[in-house]
């Protein structure tokens, strides 16, 4: 038996090997440590991002509480009782406008009247609607005057606080002495609020007069021409009576209001997490409520997933189980090439082409049955969702195909041996066996689209408001703003360290936690999938 001669070790490699042995490491240990260090790097980067977001966002809730306290002590919260009353009346007026539009459509479309004849027939209704709208004018004028008074009190306090900070800085820098420092002015809120609170009797009288006018108008409401419109008019009457019935509660709240009552800690968090307004650079008060941004992000992501999941998962099943080798070589690179498009290019495509094309398509009469069609807003949830679906398809396709590839071949062979067809095998064996992996692919696709910035900033419409969900599926054609979009839009304009600056970082923290949670759930599903397959 001839033994093979040992292969000589190259001198350079032998030197490196001796050095590694001197350090107590083998070549395998070094390679393992090098490639295994990716996990350590990921943990370090994750920790740095978390610390950075917490550091920059720290202090927002304390500043937000201070803002809420000023809002209360200056009397703006007091004026909000009347503001809520006028806003509810505006909502009733919009309902009345919708009722007029429905009558106009009946006259012009069903009865084939001209627009002039239809408007003439609605003259009595228009007079009723005008009187209904004008009943709130005295109350709205009073609210405007009280708002100006409360805003002046708040401005006076803010100026005093700025002068106090200026004094502190000058004394700390030694530029002035205590005697020559900036003189401070103290705001006595109890004295300042006396004219505001003293207007309560005048408000009660105006509110009672407002109630009498509304009740009288309801009794003289015009007769509607159809059963459907009569039912809507009855609904308006019911809503108006409920609205008027809430006036005593508003008066009670105004009587019990106390500007010295402290703002609870929970309100500083709830105003951010459940606030319906994101209002900055306002002359009377800034509001930082994340709810409309969160709803906008979720709606756009849901529309994207509704479009991307059938395309991505369907393409993965076809390519993996049915396509020929030539089809695989053509389809897979085409789908994966989509991810090479810069998101800003897709955003420009959405503005210039897709948004206009979808709006034109919605004007077609044969598509009038679709929810929300026709619509006029070119940039909305649907436009942004279509583009995000295009971005999510490669991620879902690639991961879903990997899940299908990991199904043991024995499952397929056993199914064929029992006489099942290819389609039966795919639907009843392959897909259920890889379902956990497909779900994780969908979740990772969700994490991909919910963190997208440029597409939603350019194509979602950027309206900071919660969409009207009473319209059903028509909500998808309304414009929204998103968490990523608001950060990209406003971060370059804020003052470092301001409450607005810190609010954006808290939004980023919420987005970070949301994306991290989605990816964590996806990884858990993948791990469970691998264990079940193993």
Estimate what percentage of residues fall within beta strands.
under 5%
Q: Summarize the helix and strand pattern as letters.
A: HHHHHHHHHHHHHEEHHHHHHHHHH
**Count of distinct structural domains:** 3
CATH topology of the largest domain: MetI-like fold
Description:
The protein is mainly α and 534 residues long. Helices cover 73% and strands 1% of the residues. It has a two-stranded antiparallel ribbon. α4 (76-110) packs antiparallel against α11 (227-245), α18 (409-417) packs antiparallel against α19 and α22 packs antiparallel against α23 (499-533). The radius of gyration is 33 Å and the shape is flat.
Record the SSE blueprint.
Blueprint: H1 11-22, H2 27-57, H3 60-73, H4 76-110, H5 115-121, H6 123-134, H7 137-173, H8 189-192, H9 194-197, H10 200-219, H11 227-245, H12 247-256, H13 265-273, E1 278-279, E2 287-288, H14 291-321, H15 325-337, H16 343-362, H17 381-405, H18 409-417, H19 422-433, H20 435-450, H21 454-459, H22 483-490, H23 499-533
Antiparallel strand pairs: 1-2
Helix pairs in contact: 2-23, 3-13, 4-6, 4-7, 4-11, 4-12, 10-11, 10-12, 14-17, 14-20, 16-17, 17-20, 18-19, 20-23, 22-23
